[in-house]
Amino acid sequence: MAYSLKLNGKDREVQSDAGTPLLWVIRDELQMTGTKFGCGVASCGACTVHVDGAPVRSCQTYIEDVDGAEITTIEAMQDNTIGAAVQQAWVELDVVQCGYCQSGQIMSAVGLLSENPKPTADEIDSYMYGNACRCATYQRIRAGIQRAAEILEA
């Protein structure tokens, strides 16, 4: 079946079966591999993308549920003011260890800063709770979000 999306600002049409997770459409059909498969049950956050501006887990979001929606992946974050600030902070503070979860972490951090430009440490921890990092860089992720908020405020 044909579905229409706006992916990273470009109109796209995809052919997928109903019930196909958005994650696999993005990775397999559209060849955008920055969005990662982690757990498959929306518990780890590695597959986080934005749908109409809100972070969602693409492994449990079905293609038919996003027909006509605007989808943003990690590949477009450098063109987003908040995304660029988060990426800058990640580099400045050397947040990444293995890096596998980081596209999902960044997408969630952008969602948080879009809603709350000056979050407290507790607000960061609460918002980012569903994003797992096997390397346990949670303190660096929190510091990165706080640094991104400073960059955006300047």
TrEMBL record:
<dbReference type="GO" id="GO:0046872">
    <property type="term" value="F:metal ion binding"/>
</dbReference>
<dbReference type="InterPro" id="IPR036010">
    <property type="entry name" value="2Fe-2S_ferredoxin-like_sf"/>
</dbReference>
<keyword id="KW-0411">Iron-sulfur</keyword>
<dbReference type="GO" id="GO:0051537">
    <property type="term" value="F:2 iron, 2 sulfur cluster binding"/>
</dbReference>
<keyword id="KW-0560">Oxidoreductase</keyword>
<keyword id="KW-0001">2Fe-2S</keyword>
<dbReference type="InterPro" id="IPR006058">
    <property type="entry name" value="2Fe2S_fd_BS"/>
</dbReference>
<protein>
    <submittedName>
        <fullName>(2Fe-2S)-binding protein</fullName>
    </submittedName>
</protein>
<dbReference type="Pfam" id="PF01799">
    <property type="entry name" value="Fer2_2"/>
</dbReference>
<keyword id="KW-0479">Metal-binding</keyword>
<dbReference type="InterPro" id="IPR051452">
    <property type="entry name" value="Diverse_Oxidoreductases"/>
</dbReference>
<dbReference type="Pfam" id="PF00111">
    <property type="entry name" value="Fer2"/>
</dbReference>
<dbReference type="GO" id="GO:0016491">
    <property type="term" value="F:oxidoreductase activity"/>
</dbReference>
<dbReference type="InterPro" id="IPR036884">
    <property type="entry name" value="2Fe-2S-bd_dom_sf"/>
</dbReference>
<dbReference type="InterPro" id="IPR012675">
    <property type="entry name" value="Beta-grasp_dom_sf"/>
</dbReference>
<feature type="domain" description="2Fe-2S ferredoxin-type">
    <location>
        <begin position="1"/>
        <end position="77"/>
    </location>
</feature>
<dbReference type="InterPro" id="IPR002888">
    <property type="entry name" value="2Fe-2S-bd"/>
</dbReference>
<keyword id="KW-0408">Iron</keyword>
<dbReference type="InterPro" id="IPR001041">
    <property type="entry name" value="2Fe-2S_ferredoxin-type"/>
</dbReference>
